[in-house]
Amino acid sequence: MNHPTKTERTEAPERDREEQGPPAVSLRGLRKEFGSVVAVDGIDLDIANGEFFAMLGPSGSGKTTVLRMVAGFEVPTDGRVELGGVDVTRQAPFSRDVNTVFQDYALFPHMTVAQNVEYGLRVKRVPRAERRTRAQEALEKVRLGQFGSRRPGQLSGGQRQRVALARAIVNRPKVLLLDEPLGALDLKLRREMQVELKQLQRDLGITFLFVTHDQEEALTMSDRIAVFNEGRIEQVATPRDLYELPATPFVAGFVGTSNVIDGDAATKLLGEPGTFSVRPEKIQLHLDAAHVPTHHAVTAAGVVREVVYLGSATQSIVDLDHGGSLIVLRQNQQSSEEGDVAGRGAHVHLSWSREHTVSVVPASPDE
Amino acid sequence: MNSAAEGTAARPHLLARFGRAAGGLPRRVSTVLHRHPRLRLGFLLGPPMLWLGVAYLGALGALFITAFWGQNPFTGDVVREWNLDNFRTLWESEVYRKIAFRTLGIAALVTVVDIVIAFPVALYMAKIASPRLQRILVIAVLTPLWASYLVKAYAWRIMMSEGGIVDDLGGFLGLDTPGYGLAATVITLAYLWLPFMILPIYAGLERLPDSMLEASMDLGAKTGPTLRRIVLPTVFPAVVAGSIFTFSLSLGDYITVRIVGGANQMLGNVVYDNVGAANNLPFAAAVATIPVVIMLVYLAAARRTGALENV
Q1: Inter-chain residue contact B218 with A99, CB threshold 8 Å
Q2: What's the rounded mean pLDDT across residues A35-50?
């Protein structure tokens, strides 16, 4: 990973090699138009068995529409949806072996928690005794074993979320679809649920297909992430690759903070034309040019315009002498007010290693 | 800052306030109302409570009281002596018993017919039609309420006459016009009160999120089970709310049955005839209490379903 190469778009994680057979979900040339609006503009994607896969993108990028086409709530304008190698493009939702956790949970208010969880088994005519046991198991898996007789209206947001999860996994689907499942929870609860979801997925071994607009959520939980923008996929990669080697300026900007260097600045700083991305924490800031490490191939001089204290780190915006500006992030390893934090107006030298400069190519609007 | 300084600082402010309050009567009234929330509430609710108490409950009370009075058969004057004669006549006379049960049956049948017709219409409006078509349909459902009751009733009379449009269209299917009678009465009443059933069910379905239907199908339920297990339980209170309208409006009706009902009578006709031709007000009042009592029982039953909680 020394060189800034673009990640292969359909590279599957290692565990895929152990599991033979067709991918859990396979999308081919998937398109969806609503009137004159193109919501999904030709998506090709393979999701391996047992993978925790995230579809990440801003609102309106088409990620939820893709999820809804996998679930069967929307019929694609063009293209194919395959589940385990079987074409299900024209199948109704009730015929597909997938289950969905809805953004608003969509619990049935007139049923108890246990009846909600049993619903899928009940309509499939699973005998009552088995239904009871399986529902109880599912509720215990989400730590709601005692709540079976409550109504959804008597539960907190986090508990409802877990009921929705139990209601979906009780059917043991091949693929679990999650539509921004943590969006309605507060930050602390969301962090807890992220860990819990990941654990649950590992326990169950079910393929999770997860939609989110929260890049941090996608990075923490997923095996692989597809970044959506305007109905297309910008990049499919592991969280690490996505962050370290963003393929396009959009990915560099959407996943974490990034400095994009292009045009004149690129030629002057890096000695070659093109568009490049450097993460703020890769850049070192020195008051004295003599302190620049010798292995740092890229250097630039500038003036500090703004210093923002972020708690764990300090962010500085530096106007370069060459023109343009860079964001630099520095961990606050010493808690005392050290003199080496350059104040506003200070002349500084920036440096970073050449390998942290990633070439990004804008996705062409028409391929 | 010492207290003396505060005192001088407060004075101009106080003066300004008095000055403003003296500025005009409306402002002074507003200030008084602002300081006395109970007075405010009194002004707000006083007039409607007065109307409700005197004109509405008072009239109802007078009706009940009159029902226990009698009539001098020679002069026709109301005799203010308490007795149960009116109710005894009602109970013992087979004609009145029959009319009471007929009225009840018609009201129940109209309600059932309206539910059966309104549910699919409301479902289409709320869940399938585009927002534009949805608005058009709401207007289409409401428009007949603007037309005169009599016009609509007479329109049905003409349609169901011999050689009328129902006769013509029914001819293709080998059906006759029902003619004037109970069937025509039920059809006409069901038509008249249909909007009162469609609108609550439509509102109830509007409140049912689409994701709930999707969740049901996602969990493996086809359309039938989804309707039965998710949609119907959710809109049941709305159906009950709508049935209160169709049921009570049918119970009290006496015009439609006159126009399309042939020789049949409903309770309303008995009341009408006793107020008018027979001039027996106490007996009319006694007859009129029957639908009121039926409705009270019905409302008590509806309350238990929870239908009255979110209407």
Answers
A1: yes
A2: 92
